[in-house]
Each structure stands twice: as structure tokens, then as C-alpha cells.
Amino acid sequence: MKYRIEISSAAEAEADSLFLHLSQITSPIKATQWYAGLLQAIESLTSMPKRCPLARENQYFSQEIRQLLYGRGRNLYRILFTILDGQDISTIRILHIRHASQRTIGEEPEEPDAN
User: Fold this and answer.
1) Neighbour tally for 58: CB within 10 Å
2) Rounded to 5 degrees, what are φ and ψ at 82?
3) Of 11, 40, 102, 115, which cross-links 94 as Cys (Cβ 3.0–4.6 Å)?
4) pLDDT tens profile 82-102
């Protein structure tokens, strides 16, 4: 079964922001390569998206949230998505693109100790 890809405006803005950041700290060429790889990784979700595990955010939302990891080491990003089953065609909705070290969406920040 083939799936259609739909990218949320939040995910689009996050990808653009990451691209700009990478082009400033590395080079525009490397940032362009990263962005092209990101789009290729997202495109891979058109077949067998359920191969990706549930994201840690899954427990905070009513819809099933999965993640596709992109990159490696300190440059690891999580592509968060959900699968919307339709009658004619099912859709993969990309919700967010986040660095692996970022806080879990939906999780309450830890309160500092009052001691």
C-alpha cells in the first residue's frame, strides 16, 4: 500500500529553521545535503511506515505517534508522524522534526527542587 505524505506547517518551519542553523554552523552545501536527505527519509515513509516504532510522545496523545530517526550521533533527528487511514488513500502526516536531545512534546517540564 502506498501512502501520501502531508507535512504540517510546524514541521515545515522546523525543517527550515534547522536548515538555516546548519548552514550557519557548517556550510550551505552541507546544509543542502542534510535537507535533501531529510526529504528522502520522509519520502521513504510512503511504503511501510509502520516499520517505525512508536515515539515517546505517543503516551501523551490520542492519535498514534511514530518516529523515523534521521542522521546519526550528535546529528540525530526525530521525524514525528501519524498515519491517517482513508477510504481511498492513507496519509502520513509529518507533525514535527526535532533534534533527538529535545524535550518530549507533551511532557511536563521538571520542577526545580525547592530545597
Assistant:
1) 17
2) -130, 155
3) 11
4) 999 887 889 999 999 999 999
